[in-house]
Sequence to fold (204 residues):
Amino acid sequence: MTDENIDPDIKSDTDTDTDHDTDISGADAGDTAVDADSPGPLMSNKRLRTLAFGVLPALVVLLGAGAGLLRWQDVSYRAIDTARTESVAAARSATETILSYKAGSVEQDLGAARDRLTGSFLDSFTDLVNKVVIPGAREKKISATAKVSAAASVSASAKHAVALVFVNQTVVTGGGAPSGSASSVRVTLDKVDDRWLVSGFDPV
Fold:
């Protein structure tokens, strides 16, 4: 049978159905392509794995480092506060010992002061008292008493500190009347074997 014998209306319907099927197939193919390119659950799982194995551990490390830094700072501040308190107390006590002695026991008194000193200041102090202070106190019967009126920390670290000390000293020569004087001293201290020892003693 030839095309000329086919009813034109039937042929038209057939063509229309064919075109319709073609359009549907094309739409299905397009839908399939879109589904293939969409993230879907797989991409969500990847993001979750990245968060779980990358971001969260890094965050934990940062938080731990921050907490460790805060603890270190707290310990450091406490150590400095302790150094200030201890060094000022040592400066007060050492100043009174260094500047106090009696004519009859000057050698023993200033010998005890040497136990609070260190470094080159120990050597210079020993030389001074042996050559000047002890002979003069014995000869002229000089006695001295020192009292610290105030003291403050200038600087402090775990092993080194500086304090400013205000001191009143009373001196008696022979049987004479006592004479008093006020002065201030910059006291430098070093921590040696858990003790704060004077390494500098400078009037200011």
The longest strand covers residues 142-156. Helices lie at 8-37, 40-98, 106-114, 119-140.
